[in-house]
Design brief:
Blueprint: H1 4-7, H2 12-40, H3 43-57, H4 75-78, H5 83-106, H6 120-125, H7 138-150, H8 166-169, H9 184-196, H10 201-207, H11 209-229, H12 234-241, H13 245-253, H14 258-273, H15 277-288, H16 298-309, H17 324-349, H18 371-385, H19 390-393, H20 396-419, H21 424-437, H22 444-454, H23 461-485, H24 489-505, H25 519-524, H26 533-539
Helix pairs in contact: 2-26, 3-5, 5-23, 5-24, 7-9, 7-10, 11-12, 11-13, 11-14, 11-26, 14-15, 14-16, 15-16, 15-17, 16-17, 16-21, 18-20, 20-21, 21-22, 23-24
Length: about 550
């Protein structure tokens, strides 16, 4: 007579596997609690949590939620539309941002002084986990595009206007009629979130934060390990790439697709550093399924694969000259695998290749942060002031953007041919940064692409100082944006002035030497468990 356990195929060995898996899960959770407790013991971590709580308080103001949103039909929230309430909300958010930036500077690692435990990012994310999208309304577009997919329409042919009502009402009017420019995996994730939230537009937008949080958890796990393999202090990588205010503001707060893209790029580079270039290529291709710019990181995968084939680890100086054609063969294989993987993801999602025609959608808006676009606009404006007819100046901005594109292509060619086989991760970082700075449109979260990776590859103080100033400038830009939208411009100007003066007074702190790890040390840490098992747990989800 057979037992019930035998009839369903459960035997003692399987029981042992289940028990071992459960025991491992319990151990991970215990370590996660210990990591959170270690992070909480840092006074600056608690101050950063308070700063994020202040930012979360202002998330319900018109700076982040459309003034005609159903949320304001509630009597309590309706009061937030008044001028005094908007003024107060703006002041509170800006105080939170100033404090967050100050805390971040205070956590800068130096020789013998580490930064906060990596689990600090989880504490800082907690206050904003359930609030509306911050510093951008893109998440509302994601929700609307997810509903478009759910209803069987092609998001590459129609914009959020195809789903009028609560979903479309929250989308920024600039993007209301534009089709989706994102990769096929992003659209399927958005559809899944919309399906799981039962048709509530605001809840769907807020729920877009879940994949973003998981992605930042993966970054927090993988980036320090990548840094150690490149001969860079993990503390520097944690400070610049995980605890950076831009990561908290835009990847967690704004929940952009960039978070998932970057997580897969970092994982891909980490895999490639161990010689697993096929899996790495697939990971980067999956990142391109969220945002196509991930393909630029393939130069890093190719460089790491080439160096690993030569028996060279990290980014130390090559012991012999680069065999360019051997490198080209490796790069070609990486490209073929990535293209095949991306094609497979496209087929599996059933979304097709309609995004190709929409790649210019983000560039349809004049970007205040784009050097080439603003240079063109400045020249056109100056000519208009001296009486040059508009039909003569109309092509100046597109002309500058075309020149910027040519410069980007030239820089990418040099990065791919010269830099990648010598410094692969640096090549991936600079490829993303060059593409951002030379492009027609720049948003603060675009800059995070390169900043995050540079923290895992450069120890030069001048580079790190520049990244600090860039971070401060982009925080200031977001502060002004919040103040202008809430009708409190003078508050924003005052806060930015104070923040700039404070950073200038503290500039001497940026000259203190950074912690360093030699390439020999990094080789010893390749298989060592990374500090921060909370993020390790998230990475395994």
């Amino acid at each position: 007579m057979t037992t019930a356990r035998e009839r369903i195929g459960v035997d003692a060995p399987n029981d042992s596997v289940i028990r071992a898996t459960l025991a491992h899960a319990r151990a991970l959770l215990a370590e996660a609690r210990a990591d959170l407790a270690e992070a909480w013991a840092w006074p600056l971590v608690r101050q950063g949590l308070l700063a994020m709580a202040l930012i979360a308080f202002g998330a319900f103001s018109p700076a982040f939620v459309a003034a005609d949103a159903p949320l304001y039909e509630n009597g309590f929230f309706a009061r937030l539309l008044s001028e005094p309430a908007r003024f107060a909300a703006t002041a509170i958010v800006l105080v939170g941002l100033l404090r967050l930036f100050d805390v971040w500077l205070g956590l800068r690692p130096t020789e013998g002084v580490p930064t906060a435990p990596v689990a600090a990012w989880a504490w800082w994310s907690l206050p904003v986990a359930f609030v509306p999208p911050l510093f951008s309304r893109d998440a509302y577009s994601y929700a609307a595009q997810g509903l478009v997919v759910t209803r069987g329409m092609d998001p590459y042919q129609t914009g959020p206007i195809a789903v009028p009502g609560p979903y479309a009402d929250q989308v920024d009017p600039i993007w209301l009629y534009t089709p989706a420019p994102y990769g096929p995996i992003a659209l399927q994730v958005q559809r899944t979130v919309v399906d799981l939230t039962g048709g509530d537009a605001m809840l769907a937008a807020i729920a877009m934060r879940l994949p973003a949080l998981l992605a930042v958890g993966v970054i927090a796990y993988a980036l320090p390990r990548l840094a150690e393999r490149m001969g860079v202090s993990r503390d520097q990588a944690v400070w610049l790439g995980v605890l950076n205010p831009l990561v908290l503001m835009h990847l967690v707060g704004g929940m952009h697709n960039d978070a998932m893209m970057l997580a897969l790029v970092v994982v891909g580079l980490l895999l490639a550093s161990d010689g697993r270039w096929v899996t790495a290529s697939v990971a980067v291709a999956a990142g391109a399924g969220f945002k196509q710019t991930a393909v630029l990181a393939l130069v890093g995968v190719a460089g790491l694969a080439y160096r690993h084939a030569r028996g060279e680890r990290g980014e130390a100086r090559l012991v012999s000259a680069v065999d360019q054609w051997a490198y080209v063969r490796v790069a070609a294989r990486v490209g073929v695998v990535a293209l095949a993987a991306f094609t497979g993801f496209t087929v599996l999602t059933g979304m097709g290749w309609g995004w190709v025609a929409n790649l210019g959608v983000p560039g349809s808006v004049l970007s205040l942060l784009s050097p080439v676009s603003m240079a063109g606009a400045g020249v056109a404006g100056a000519l208009a002031l001296i009486g040059v007819p508009g039909e003569w100046t109309g092509g100046i901005v597109p002309g500058f953007q075309a020149l910027g594109l040519l410069a980007v292509l030239a820089a990418l060619a040099w990065i791919t041919w010269v830099l990648a086989p010598r410094r692969p991760v640096a090549a991936a970082a600079w490829a993303l940064l060059v593409f951002t700075v030379g492009g027609p449109t720049v948003y603060p979260w675009y800059v995070v692409w390169g900043v995050l990776l540079l923290g895992a590859t450069y120890t030069d103080r001048r580079v790190v100082q520049a990244l600090c100033w860039v971070t401060g400038w982009l925080v200031a830009y977001s502060m002004l944006d919040v103040a202008v939208v809430n009708g409190a411009s003078m508050v924003g100007i005052a806060a930015v002035t104070w923040g700039g003066w404070s950073l200038w007074r503290r500039r001497g702190e940026l000259d203190v030497p950074l912690p360093a790890v030699t390439p020999g040390d990094s080789a010893q840490t390749d298989t060592a468990p990374a500090r921060g098992s909370l993020t390790a747990l998230l990475a395994r989800v």
